[in-house]
């Protein structure tokens, strides 16, 4: 039965996404790569953006469909603007932007340098802002499209030992909510997908970070990149102007975290990073 439902959902998303131009940032690995592969399977036309040229070009060649690979550091506003202009010239106005680029180790403030803190804000927050700004005017002129952020549970409930990372994710949530209000009535939808911890090379690239994820995470579960990609497609098709939280256990807990922040914060504090 589950396989039948999945096949039906896949046919529906394919019908709605086929031929659509979708920009995926942070596409060279992990969640971004899984999203790109899933959207390609639905027949979407893809623009893949990340910093690693070799990984991007390999992915574009693998998924085919004329995927456009653009290696760029989205933290650089001039480089980001040039990349967006290239997309508009070579591919057209996107139907959707998936702002997935992110980075940053989990660190207490005294463990961080000033550059660390700036780098953590660059990705994901400024990367999402720069990319969105690069496409917003033509999307507004057309009067349609979706802007989607991939976020983290720490944007809802902060936890100890990850100050710069949490602040950047809070900023991304604020950007999503403020942009949604700013674009109300424009024809553009603004949404987000917030999964729990994802098993990807993100934690390999940031050693020591996984140990700082609060143990209460066991209550909400973990995910694979392919599961996040599936959830992203459902959210993009079914609720492009909403915030979606997955898996279902985190989806149930998240409203409680917003309504009763002190209770959840205490739980995360008790099961999270402890100072020596």
From TrEMBL:
Keywords: Oxidoreductase
Superkingdom of origin organism: Bacteria
Keyword DNA-binding assigned: no
InterPro entries in the record: NAD(P)-bd_dom_sf, SDR_fam
PANTHER family attached to this UniProt entry: DEHYDROGENASE/REDUCTASE SDR FAMILY MEMBER 7B (PTHR44196), DEHYDROGENASE_REDUCTASE SDR FAMILY MEMBER 7B (PTHR44196:SF1)
Family designation: Belongs to the short-chain dehydrogenases/reductases (SDR) family.
Official protein name in the record: SDR family NAD(P)-dependent oxidoreductase
Organism for this UniProt entry: Brachybacterium equifaecis
